[in-house]
Write a structure and sequence with these properties.
Length: about 250
């Protein structure tokens, strides 16, 4: 039989091991420990091997790493009455563990709900064209609103990014027709500008040729040379009298 004294020492040893294990906490570099002593806030412990008073103290670990939270798709009606579905991603981190544990019950859930309501509110005050063309400005505006509201919780919003804007099929078709009309308008403007520039150059060339009679004859001979390069057709080309007048004058002499 095992002596009673040995059993007692074993029980005491087990109790000591249990007390020591409950008094020792290891915090990683990215963690902070918020200590509550008899229900009241006591301190915030840094990373490393930390000791607490068993039964009296309670420690809650808080991560200081940046959290990437996906904001679920939200149904939004824009300022110009267009129904869209938008989702986003939110980047934030805890900068004050004490506030994150005391000021709000669950800072992750609270931040998620706040991001969803703010997303609907801000996009509801913006027009569709503004949302598509100035997304960076809307992201910045959302970040400022969320950061201001989560500051009492000890949470810092570092960035907000709108990921996807889902448009109705009718709106997609209307935007496609608008883009096609815009491309056609640009094509016509470019073509008209080309015709205008060509007319200007032709006008300048006509003035130069008209100022020199010999230039017209040289241009005529150049045209004959270009036409004669095609040997598969017969071309009747009128010859101006001014061109052969020089030869007729020489023959009369």
């Amino acid at each position: 039989m095992i002596p009673i004294g040995l059993i007692g020492w074993a029980v005491v040893l087990a109790l000591l091991i249990g007390i020591i294990s409950s008094a020792v906490r290891i915090l990683f570099e990215y963690e902070r420990g918020v200590v509550f002593r008899l229900g009241r806030f006591a301190m915030v412990k840094g990373p490393g091997l930390r000791f607490i008073i068993p039964v009296v103290d309670r420690i809650i670990k808080v991560s200081l790493r940046t959290v990437a939270m996906d904001v679920p798709p939200q149904d939004v009606i824009t300022k110009d009455n267009v129904s869209i579905k938008v989702n986003a991603v939110l980047y934030f981190r805890v900068v004050d563990p004490e506030k994150a544990m005391i000021e709000v019950e669950n800072y992750l859930y609270a931040t998620s709900q706040l991001a969803q309501t703010s997303l609907r509110s801000v996009l509801g005050q913006s027009e569709l064209d503004e949302l598509l063309a100035h997304r960076e400005r809307i992201n910045q505006h959302l970040q400022e609103i969320l950061d201001r509201q989560t500051d009492p919780w000890g949470v810092k919003i570092s960035n907000v990014e709108i990921k996807h804007v889902d448009l109705p099929v009718e709106m997609q078709r209307a935007m496609a027709r608008q883009a096609e009309a815009e491309r056609e308008r640009r094509s016509k403007v470019i073509h008209a500008e080309g015709e205008f520039q060509a007319a200007q150059k032709l006008s300048e060339a006509a003035k130069i040729i008209s100022s020199e009679p010999g230039a017209l004859q040289l241009r005529f001979l150049q045209t004959l040379t270009e036409v004669s390069a095609e040997k598969n057709s017969t071309i009747v080309f009128p010859i101006p009298l001014d061109l052969i007048k020089v030869f007729m004058d020489k023959a009369e002499r």
